[in-house]
Amino acid sequence: MTATPASSAAAPPVVDRETWLRERDELLVREKAHTREGDAIAAARRQLPMTLMPTVTVRGPGGDTPLVEVFEGRRMLIAYFHMWHDGKPYEHQCEGCTFSTCHMQMLDYLHARDVTYAVFCEGPYDESAPFAEFMGYRFPWYSAKDSDPALADGRDFGFIACYLRDGDKVYETYWTTGRGVEALMTTYHALDLTVYGRQENWENSPEGWPRVTGHPWRLNGRPTAQWSRPGVAPR
Fold first, then answer.
1. Are 175 and 161 in contact (CB under 8 A)?
2. pLDDT at residue 59 greater than cutoff 70
3. 209 CB contacts (<8 Å, ≥6 apart)?
4. What angle do CA 139, 35, 183 make, to 5 degrees?
5. Angstrom distance (rounded) from CA 39 to CA 33
6. Measured between alpha carbons, how far is 163 from 68 in angstroms, rounded to an integer?
7. Using one digit for the tens of pLDDT, what is the confidence trace for 85-139?
8. pTM beyond 0.90
9. Whole-angstrom Cα distance, residue 159 to residue 64?
10. For residues 82 and 104, is the Cβ–Cβ distance under 8 A?
């Protein structure tokens, strides 16, 4: 992945501050409408019916672990279903799943709201757990490779599922994939605030704006987040 150098990229027109503030205020009206619609969608999401999960297990550091124990005593669980390529080295593991979940390092605010975050990996535990350690992940890591198929329920890995615990019963309350997984990608939300945005080819940006070449989540043959990990050779 490379991007056009800033010095050679186009830029927005320059206007006086009064004009700039007026146009910023016009955009703010749209942003507030977008926020209110997002709040309405979130309210509808909270009021979705839920479905009872069968008794399923995942494999963790202590062996087979019932889903209800993944909650760690909390009421809610967010699980990211991480793709895995069996037998492949770390640099060949899923760059999208790496990008999604590498942001989830600060869990305090989730825990304060009675929410546990965990990853259910598609690969075997003994193979994938060292990857989680290499990445420096602080969240619980489990393997769903040999879990009851009801856990993934026919969905391709690379999705988020949310659960509610009521005693020993577990209910699935919501799931999302595709662009919905961007809920974890704080980098994307930050980039969206900048003048050049995500710099990806699908974005509606003026001619001359910098664009990423190559895979947007890889850099020099690795998922981008891996380059800062101990033991990885400098770029």
1. yes
2. yes
3. 9, 10, 196, 197, 199
4. 20
5. 10
6. 10
7. 999 999 999 999 999 999 999 999 999 999 999 999 999 999 999 999 999 999 9
8. yes
9. 22
10. no
Q: Which tokens hold the place of 43?
A: 């309210």
Mean pLDDT over 174-182 rounds to 97
In angstroms, the Cα distances linking 25 to 19, 21, 22, 143, 162 are 10, 6, 5, 49, 37
Q: Helix or strand or coil: residue 66?
A: strand
How far apart (Å, rounded) are the C-alpha atoms in residues 59 and 128?
11
Q: At 230, give phi and psi (nearest 5°).
A: -60, 140
Which of these, 92, 137, 135, lies nearest to 118 by C-alpha position? 137
Q: Using alpha carbons only, what angle is made at residue 111 by residues 99 and 141, rounded to the nearest 5 degrees? A: 45
In angstroms, the CA 163 to CA 181 distance is 16
Residue with tokens 């850099």: 219
What the block records as the tokens of 185 is 């990608």
Q: Tokens at residue 49, please?
A: 């019916």
Ramachandran bin of 163, using left for φ above 0, alpha for ψ from -120 to 50, beta for the remaining angles = beta
Amino acid letter at 149?
P
Strand 76-82 and strand 115-121: pairing? parallel
